[in-house]
Amino acid sequence: MSGARMSALATLRGQIERIETAEVVHQYDRVALGHGEADRVLKGGLARAAIHEVFCEGRQGAAATGFVSGLAGRVTARKPLLWVRQDFSEIETGALSMSGLAELGLDPRRVVMVRAADVESALRTSADALACDALGAVVLELWGETKQFDLVASRKLTLAAQSSGVTGLLLRMAAQPLPSTAETRWMLRAAHSPPGTAWSAWGAPRFDAELLRNRHGPCGRWIMEWNCDECQFSEPSTYSQPVAAAPAHRPDSAVPWQRRAG
Fold this sequence. Notes:
alpha/beta, 9-stranded mixed β-sheet
């Protein structure tokens, strides 16, 4: 190994050690998600300038994408969002809907989509983007298990996010959580939406969000409802279900059908 590479490796190890040393505490700016219990556990909300992982099963990809979109809308602070996808993700799940992102609070005019040919390209693009403080957030979407995204790659992304103040959101579909430097790690599942209003066939999106890892607090699991008007999460709303009133008088209700027919 050359002297330059050894020096670079030593520098990287020193930076990693400073991140993980207990005496060094990074002061995060946090943005409230809107869900009271989740914000309390997160000590005020989701940390900016950090990496957050969102995992899901392959069939839960739509729910996880919606959840990540909601998080991105909360942390971007009107800055552009860069969304990095593998070509494989495009094949498996199709293209992202700009109108769908708009309904979740993301301005499509501020969303820049990047399609990467492979995992290595996606990681390099995301690391470079996280170092750019003109962005509000970077979403890195990876499909399936991948050996390229290891602990070293995770640390590089964390260092880039901390140096620039840009938030990184990793969307991991059909993958199992592995050790990383992520600030939080979530497991997402779809939850039943409430009944729609008279003028809408669809109710508010709901997510079964399980916080698997929280570096600075406890974990938890909640049903989080997305408020499309306020562009934030909230506790599930309570909807009264109409019930048909029973008739006041039915003298034949207890008579068997056969007896009435006879």
